DNA sequence: AACACGTGGAT
DNA sequence: TATCCAAGTGT
């Protein structure tokens, strides 16, 4: 240990990470100084399990059409689902609409700035609440997504992780590494996230381009393989596939679709009935007395 | 805690 | 072609 310094340099050295972020961080719309909390919140919903490239155009359309939470809340939830396009997980559109409604009703139309208030919004979990608090309001909160979790696992813990939602221990560990100054801490989280997205990727990490390679415990251990993943559900013939087809049909038809027509989209009659009922139960579809189905009003 | 929940690009 | 997986949340 150096005689002059009190603590050893951490693996996730803020100096190295912030320099990396300044040089290589992507110029994304929700990172612009002009992007307000609403633009950040919308981006975080869209980015849940969805790549940046596909979010970009839809985010731009949403902000142009609904510049404030109240603008979105003033329209039927079905319009949010329709404008969601093919981003996937359309229930996110429903929850974002519900969040906008709660913001308009309970927060005077302003996106709240504290983690507890954000957590109370529909569709906002442990990750999104801290991402908005940090990136939109400059709060000193540990922001741990799948990228940050992977960097923590590899660089700090020396193991390769399977992809799972971050846990409290991950947030605690990152919190211990945050710079003291809040705005700098927020940039630090964004920098770790960016490193995971651009360099320390899941499948093909580019250690030769990593600013942390000299300290990385995983690299120094010879990049040991991670544990096996849980088996994934087959896609062909799944409920998810059929639900996707049904919602796509509803998005395309402003006048609604006959229930019988939706049921034809599946190979299995019982499965189709079950999926349609589930969509209605989830609030992604509504059925009128004639049996006509539409996106929610 | 384990699952369900969409989509499309990369390998 | 099959599998992985990308800024998670709710149950």
Mean pLDDT: 95
- Structural class by helix and strand composition: mainly alpha
Shape: globular
Unreliable stretches, pLDDT < 50, 5 or more residues? none
Helix-strand topology string: HHHHHHHHHHHHHEHHEE
Supply the number of helical segments. 15
Task: Please state the oligomeric state of the protein chains shown.
Answer: single chain
Amino-to-carboxy terminus distance: 64 Å
SS strand fraction: under 5%
Helix fraction by DSSP (H/I, runs of at least 4): 40-55%
Describe the biggest sheet? 3 strands, antiparallel
Radius of gyration (CA) equals 22 Å
Q: What is the topology, as strand order, of the major beta sheet?
A: 1-3-2
How many beta-strand runs? 3
GO biological process, one term: mismatch repair
Enzyme class: hydrolase
Domain HhH-GPD: 46-198
Catalytic activity: Hydrolyzes free adenine bases from 7,8-dihydro-8-oxoguanine:adenine mismatched double-stranded DNA, leaving an apurinic site
